Amino acid sequence: MATVVIPTPLRKFTNQTAKLQISADTVGGIIEELTRNFPDLKKHLLDDQGKVRSFVNIFAGDEDIRDLQQEKTAVEESTIISIVPAIAGGISF
């Protein structure tokens, strides 16, 4: 099973769980299982077409899935999947 690291802002949708073990062959399968088990998380990860939102970065190990095969990126039991939502901010003038 791959390990999925849930960022602090999204843990309120996973019963405060920081890491989950999910069995799937692809990142898309992991997202599907994750949102099936935690339906309130879906709107924060996926857009209306079911694609990963543009401001959500997902890494398989150290690689951004956008640089790999996106949701079709293969995962193994030892893969660590990290979900990293973009944080807005900056300097006001």
Any descriptors?
single chain; 93 residues; alpha+beta; Ubiquitin-like (UB roll); five-stranded mixed beta sheet; 2 helices; 19% helix
SSE blueprint and pairings:
Blueprint: E1 2-5, E2 19-22, H1 27-37, H2 39-45, E3 56-60, E4 63-64, E5 80-85
Parallel strand pairs: 1-5
Antiparallel strand pairs: 1-2, 3-4, 3-5
Helix pairs in contact: 1-2
Overall radius of gyration: 13 Å
Count of helix runs: 2
Q: How do the SSEs run, as a string of H and E?
A: EEHHEEE
What percentage of the residues does DSSP assign to strands (E)?
15-25%
Number of strands: 5
Structural class: alpha+beta
**Helical amount among residues, as a percent range?**
10-25%
Average residue-wise pLDDT: 89
Give structural notes.
- With about 90 residues, the chain is an alpha+beta fold.
- It has a single domain (about 1-85), classed as Ubiquitin-like (UB roll), CATH 3.10.20.
- The chain contains two helices and five strands.
- Strands 2-1-5-3-4 form a five-stranded mixed beta sheet, with helices on one face.
- Strand 3 and strand 4 (about 65) form a beta hairpin.
- The radius of gyration is 13 Å and the shape is globular.
Summarize the structure.
The protein has 93 residues and is α+β, with helices and mostly antiparallel strands.
